[in-house]
Design brief:
mainly alpha; globular; Arp2/3 complex 21 kDa subunit ARPC3
Length: 216
């Protein structure tokens, strides 16, 4: 859902750039307080590379935007929402600067949509399910977190395009939410698979405890 240059009016992209900068600044301060962050860096790098590669597969959507897998929910479930924001901000910035995937002026908006909104949504939804002792509930939680994170970021992009006068809100929402509802299914399946892999191995990188650990 990368938004290109010229699709957002100045008031929208400037406002979202400020909001995203504040969000990333907050994430950096939060991470500095995490004593276990250094031990997580290799795994964070590996997950970031996986997300970057997944996002390179794009599908054209309405208004000149694109649809693709996100990855924010996965990163946030494994490492927490603050790391999720930084991972997504890094991925989106590299894509814009090197691969021209998403505009420079729209970079703040793209970070806001795919980084801040998606990370907080994915982590919040997962927390509702992830602490359960039942594997099926946790699995549903992982899937729901990924799917809703994709839809939330797509809805935000549609709203921004509409506010900027690029395309009507009903048209943008229908196209963005429709395409990303399908994309979210694939992302949900991938997220469930990766999170389950880490849970079964009780990896220390997984922030939310498993059912057996919750009992103990």
């Amino acid at each position: 859902m990368h938004i290109p240059d010229g699709f957002l009016d100045p008031k929208t992209w400037i406002t979202l750039s400020v909001v995203s900068a504040a969000g990333i600044g907050t994430a950096l301060r939060k991470i500095r307080r995490d004593e276990d962050y250094t031990a997580k860096v290799p795994m964070i790098g590996m997950v970031s590379a996986f997300i970057f590669a997944s996002q390179m597969i794009n599908f054209p959507v309405a208004g000149g935007t694109s649809g693709h897998l996100g990855g924010a929910a996965l990163a946030s479930i494994l490492f927490g929402p603050w790391v999720g924001m930084l991972v997504m901000a890094t991925v989106v910035t590299i894509q814009a600067l090197i691969f021209q995937d998403g505009g420079i002026t729209a970079l703040g908006a793209n970070i806001f949509n795919m980084g801040l909104i998606a990370s907080l949504t994915g982590y919040g939804v997962y927390r509702l399910f992830g602490i359960s002792r039942h594997k099926l509930v946790r699995t549903v939680g992982s899937f729901a977190a990924a799917w809703l994170a994709v839809e939330a970021s797509a809805a935000a992009a549609a709203l921004e395009l509409a506010v900027s006068g690029t395309v009507g809100l009903s048209v943008a929402l229908k196209a963005m939410l429709g395409w990303h509802a399908l994309i979210g299914l694939g992302e949900g399946i991938i997220t469930v698979g990766v999170v389950t892999y880490f849970r079964e191995r009780r990896s220390s990188t997984l922030l939310v405890p498993s059912g057996k650990e919750a009992q103990g």
